[in-house]
Amino acid sequence: MDKKFWKNKTVVITGGGGFLGSHLVSLLKPLAPKKIIIPRSKDYDLRNLADCAKVVKGADIVIHLAANVGGIGYNQEFPGTLFYDNLLMGVHLMEEARRAKVKKFVGIGTICAYPKLTPVPFKEENLWDGYPEETNAPYGLAKKMLLVQSQAYRAQYKFNSIYLLPVNLYGPGDNFDPKSSHVIPALIKRFVDATRKKQEEVVIWGTGKPTREFLYVEDAARAILLAAEKYNSGEPVNIGSSFEISIKDLAQTIKKVTGYQGKVVFDKTKPDGQPRRKLDVSRAKKEFGFESEVNFEQGLKKTVEWYENK
Questions:
Q1: What interhelical angle do 296-309 and 183-196 show, nearest 10?
Q2: For the residues 197-215, what does the mean pLDDT come to?
Q3: In the beta sheet, which residues pair with residue 238?
């Protein structure tokens, strides 16, 4: 990464205290920008235009990571909240960043924005080829509007806004709350708890057949900083690892890493979510030289260790 790029820059990172944000801040600090500002939700409500104006004042770069986000169950329970919160945060923050003459806006989208039946691997040009998977469509579409706004502002105002689409992230510091966690922390928690309580079986939602791609959180943070330095185009960019695994194999891998000795049972009455997720990541490599570095099982071990010791 380029220390010269960050010199004398004031960087605002929304969601900087969260899972991805805390790793991003840790990577950014050694690059010695002039100032890193992390607005906290207790002080600023990013759904509020006036609060967004305060947050972006004096910023050179805004990296928008803040989101209301969760797994399948959370998406099913709060579709309206997820749509409203994520749409308003993005719309207001980018508008105020434009008005404050921020030099660069880095918007973070989601692969939930892709159509349910996207050809695999997902290419950026497939984004508009259909409706997202129903359980996470309100969240996915709200985040997708950040791309529409980004391209519209580039066209009308010459505003330098970019849009990145990270795949499912995992790693130390993830959200392990069973009500809102994603699949890897949810499974780690179940297997670790089952081992401690000597439970005979662990029950997992769905058939185990869907596949997912996962990216270690530090890799994702590095990708965002590289894009902030080097990428200045309106086209969206996938951020992933090119590693695809079925939920069934994922469960077996986590079982092995946690040392759980019991049975794994799939509850087929529960939804599977999107059938397959794997990204074409060639644009990120071509445009700003990003490739993932952390091996999946190695990343899982670090995540399990963090959870067991927290």
A1: 50
A2: 93
A3: 165
Q: What is the pLDDT of residues 105-151, one digit of tens each?
A: 999 999 989 998 899 999 999 999 999 989 899 999 999 999 999 99
Average pLDDT over the chain, rounded to whole? Answer: 95
**Alpha-carbon span 310 to 129, nearest angstrom:** 43
Confidence label for 69 from pLDDT (cuts 50, 70 and 90): confident
**Does 182 score more than 90 pLDDT?**
no
CA dihedral 14, 20, 21, 24 (to 10 degrees): -130
The residues that bridge with 169 in the sheet, in sequence order, are: 215
Q: Which two tokens stand for residue 70?
A: 């969760």
- Answer yes or no: 231 catalytic: no
Is residue 264 within 8 A of residue 204, CB to CB? The reply is yes
Residue 279, classed as helix, strand or coil, is: strand
Residues 6+ apart with CB under 8 A from 164: 106, 107, 108, 109, 223, 224, 227, 236, 237, 239
Pick the catalytic residue: 74, 139, 216, 231? 139
pLDDT in tens, 235-257: 999 999 988 999 999 999 999 99
| Spatial separation of the C-alpha atoms in residues 190 and 178, rounded to whole Å | 9
Is residue 124 within 8 A of residue 165, CB to CB? The reply is yes
* Residue written as token pair 């599977």: 272
Check whether 180 has a pLDDT greater than 80: no
Domains of the chain plus CATH, in order, are 3-171+214-243+276-294 (3.40.50.720)
pTM reported for the whole predicted model: 0.93
SS (H, E, C) 224-275: HHHHHHHCCCCCCEEECCCCEEEHHHHHHHHHHHHCCCCEEEEECCCCCCCC
